[in-house]
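> forwarded from #structure-qc
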């Protein structure tokens, strides 16, 4: 049954929206309405930023004992955990994410992140007395950066919001979140959890809207930092604007990562691991390894193994626990992915598998798991982010050539190396220009920095490094 929200979560309560504009959310599988919410307009953003500003400047939030902020984060985690079922089902219906993945990331990781940053808040030294070689001491102080504008995409809407909220709150910041319009329903569940957890008024606010509203938030004079996850194109615009304003910004952007399959790799293990590394969320994953680099000596074997695995994946309703590949998030996005498949064919790559819409689905934005072989690394499908279940196999001559091809990309976000010899694979992992890379698997670690190099962005999320991104440094010299 479609759900309808009438208010916006601003300043610790449910507020009447400034306009009667609404956002409709459509189920990616049934193409039926899932629900609707009010669309925030500039006046709502002004109110939300004012509330966040006041919570930061005038309330004890930023200066509270870290243990108090940790208690709020832990209560928020508990309130979210209670809503896991609703949240994960909502996400899967909105963007097509198979439920098992949604439970793992939109549920489990989101809750774990809140608890992780609660613990980090209490173990971090926010002020340190440091002896100077000049014979006096300096107080090095880390204090909250201020009001954060958090802009979130549609592919992992819950966990990518929490990835910003959790360290920001641990630091003592207040936050205005702008979710993506296509997956906005889950943000109302997050707001309900925040209210139940007793997050102080103004510390967390949500303004649902599109890119213009996001741009308004980015340049708002009341905001001190922008935390953005989304496309590289939008990230460049936001980075330019923040540069002009001297506003700190973190940019988690697109990717075109490589899975390097070495000549001694066990191909059964490779295909098992590639489900998450290359195809998670139907390929709608920033760090997906969509370029499979295969040694010329075993090229046909790798193509056969990947084709066999991809062809056997179960396509279907993301709410069915056995589904491995669901639909794409929107009709426009499917058109974009299909455009890339046509481009791959046009540029001479060999279509091994898929390429069309799966039989038996007259509704839902499904695309068949698709495999291209004989792909030139310079071609469009090897260089641009497709964001769908489309993989390309590219041949390499030796380990050095594999590294060269992996690095021949505008992006550098994820990656993986597969070999019977973990030390050899790790040596290659060291040489790939990327922010994260896995050896014989790819699992994102909450305790380690995650982010990109080159066109994949600036800054890091997860780990203590993300907390540092919400803190500013001050040195108070204490000359004797
Ligand atoms: P998008 O850039 O179109 O939108 C992302 C968010 O930014 C949305 O909320 C959108 O409304 C807003 N937005 C767009 N243009 C804006 C602007 N000029 N100013 C302010 N806000 C703006 O991206 P998308 O299609 O929603 O998400 C998919 C993209 O996100 C892919 O490129 C993917 O790789 C990337 N992504 C990156 C990571 C990462 O951690 N690096 C994680 C997930 C997704």
């Amino acid at each position: 049954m479609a759900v309808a929200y009438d208010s916006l979560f601003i300043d610790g309560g449910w507020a009447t929206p400034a306009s009667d504009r609404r956002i409709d959310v459509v189920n990616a599988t049934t193409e039926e309405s899932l629900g609707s919410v009010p669309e925030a307009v500039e006046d709502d953003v002004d109110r939300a930023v004012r509330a966040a500003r006041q919570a930061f400047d005038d309330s004890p939030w930023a200066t509270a004992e870290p243990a108090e902020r940790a208690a709020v984060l832990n209560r928020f985690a508990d309130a979210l955990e209670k809503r896991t079922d609703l949240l994960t089902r909502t996400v899967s219906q909105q963007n097509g994410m198979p439920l098992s993945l949604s439970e793992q990331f939109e549920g489990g990781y989101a809750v774990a992140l809140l608890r992780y940053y609660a613990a980090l808040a209490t173990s971090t030294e926010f002020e340190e007395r440091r002896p100077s070689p000049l014979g006096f001491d300096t107080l090095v102080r880390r204090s909250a950066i201020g009001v954060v504008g958090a802009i979130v995409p549609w592919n992992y809407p819950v966990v990518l919001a929490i990835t910003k909220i959790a360290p920001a709150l641990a630091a003592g910041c207040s936050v205005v979140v702008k979710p993506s319009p296509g997956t906005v329903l889950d943000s109302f569940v997050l707001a309900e959890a925040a209210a139940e957890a007793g997050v102080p008024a103004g510390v967390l606010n949500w303004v649902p809207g599109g890119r213009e509203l996001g741009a308004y938030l980015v340049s708002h004079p009341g905001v001190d930092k922008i935390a953005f996850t989304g496309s590289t194109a939008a990230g460049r615009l936001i980075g330019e604007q923040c540069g002009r304003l001297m506003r700190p910004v973190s940019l988690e952007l697109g990717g075109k990562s490589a899975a390097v399959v070495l000549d001694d790799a066990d191909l059964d293990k490779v295909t098992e691991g590639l489900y998450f590394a290359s195809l998670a969320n139907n390929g709608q994953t920033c760090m997906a390894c969509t370029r499979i680099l295969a040694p010329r000596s075993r090229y046909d074997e790798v193509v056969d193994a990947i084709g066999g695995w991809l062809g056997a994946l179960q396509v279907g309703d993301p709410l069915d626990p056995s589904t491995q590949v669901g639909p794409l998030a929107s009709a426009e996005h499917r058109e974009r992915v299909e455009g890339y498949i046509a481009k791959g064919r046009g540029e001479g790559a060999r279509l091994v598998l898929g390429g069309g819409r799966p039989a038996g689905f007259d509704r839902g934005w499904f695309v068949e798991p698709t495999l291209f072989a004989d792909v030139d690394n310079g071609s469009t499908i090897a260089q641009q982010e497709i964001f769908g279940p489309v993989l390309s196999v590219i041949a390499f001559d030796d380990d050095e050539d594999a590294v060269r091809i992996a690095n021949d990309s505008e992006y550098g976000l994820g990656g993986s190396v597969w070999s019977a010899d973990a030390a050899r694979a790790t040596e290659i992992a060291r040489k790939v220009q990327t922010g994260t890379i896995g050896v014989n698997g790819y699992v994102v670690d909450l305790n380690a920095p995650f982010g990109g190099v080159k066109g994949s962005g600036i800054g890091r999320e997860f780990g203590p490094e993300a907390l540092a991104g919400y803190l500013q440094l001050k040195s108070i010299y204490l000359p004797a």
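QC bot note: Residues 357 and 367 are 5 Å apart (CA to CA). The chain has two domains: 3-253+455-477, 258-445.
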